[in-house]
Amino acid sequence: MNVWIAVIATGLGCYALKLGGLVTPQRVLDDPRVRRFTELVPVALLTALIAVQALAADGPRLEFDAPRMAGLGAAVAALLLRAPFLVVLAVAAAVTAGLRLF
Description:
By secondary structure, the chain is mainly alpha-helical.
């Protein structure tokens, strides 16, 4: 039962967040501080997601996973070469999978 309460609460929270974005007045969105915040938050969240997923956690310590880090390096190289996002994902997955094969 506790799982369903968490699922319903999460769904309601997501809906409220979306609704909040729709009903926010335009004058609030035009504020330079709000605009700067909304430009930087996705970058910070994506960086945090990459940092968490790049290193494997084994209990309280982080483990260095060479194939995963090589895939991250290949993704960075593809981004520097201005590859499309799906190509970046495919390159990172291919390098990681190829190294895990060996």
